[in-house]
Design goal:
Number of domains: 1
Radius of gyration: 17 Å
Distance between the termini: 41 Å
Number of helices: 9
Order of helices and strands: HHEEHHHEEHEHHHE
């Protein structure tokens, strides 16, 4: 299985520059929110994906129907809901704006790489520029985004202790390892196993929240 992956995490890391008071756990959750919801809808049978053999790992999944998690109108709704809930608790306008943009950024990045399979709503015309057809280019772009985002995050924060330092770098190494497995490993054997494996990404939110809480803003 391979999808736009670390590119979404790059958005969350870089967002710290624009909302320094917002936990990285929340900033990461925003751009990956659609992929946190998607496996739930797969397991419920509300959305559908097929696994197809392909030498290009980015083209192994055929997204047959996912208007609830990835339809643009629904995405705007999810973004507004998430941002509104955050504002209700935090009352922090920069964080609220960044969260809304982060959720919507997922659809925009997917639009660049996906084949035409992204809907506006159920039954609508589907969109996608198909950059996934160029495997090497996609990998290069995602890795570049990720490296730049790490640099931005490290310019905004510094570790207060070992948790802030080592759990951060462990997070980075883990994401790169999962990305390498997705790009160079085998396709998922079944849709259910794909969904369950994707559900585990929920655990990355408290991980990011934990180490970010052990880092502090860098004085400029």
């Amino acid at each position: 299985m391979a999808r736009m992956f670390i590119g979404h995490y790059a958005v969350g890391l870089a967002a710290k520059k624009f909302a320094p008071r917002t936990s990285l756990g929340v900033l990461i959750a925003a751009p990956i929110l659609l992929d946190l919801l998607w496996p739930i809808f797969l397991l419920l049978g509300w959305e559908h994906v097929s696994i197809e053999p392909n030498r290009n790992p980015f083209l192994r999944l055929a997204f047959d129907s996912y208007p609830i998690s990835h339809g643009l109108i629904a995405v705007v709704g999810w973004a507004t809901l998430f941002a509104s809930l955050y504002f209700a608790f935090a009352r922090y306008v920069p964080g609220t704006i960044v969260i809304w943009i982060g959720v919507v950024s997922h659809w925009l990045l997917d639009y660049v790489v996906h084949r035409p399979d992204l809907p506006l709503y159920a039954g609508s015309r589907q969109f996608g520029l198909g950059l996934w057809n160029h495997r090497g280019l996609v990998i290069a772009i995602e890795l570049a985004m990720f490296v730049i985002a790490i640099w931005i995050y490290l310019r905004q924060t510094k570790a207060k202790d070992g948790i802030g330092k080592y759990l951060f770098w462990g997070f980075i190494v883990f994401l790169l390892a999962v990305y390498a497995l997705a790009v160079f490993g085998p396709a998922p054997p079944t849709v259910n196993k794909l969904a369950i494996g994707t559900l585990l990404t929920w655990l990355l939110i408290p991980w990011a929240w934990w180490f970010d809480g052990h880092r502090e803003a860098v004085s400029v």
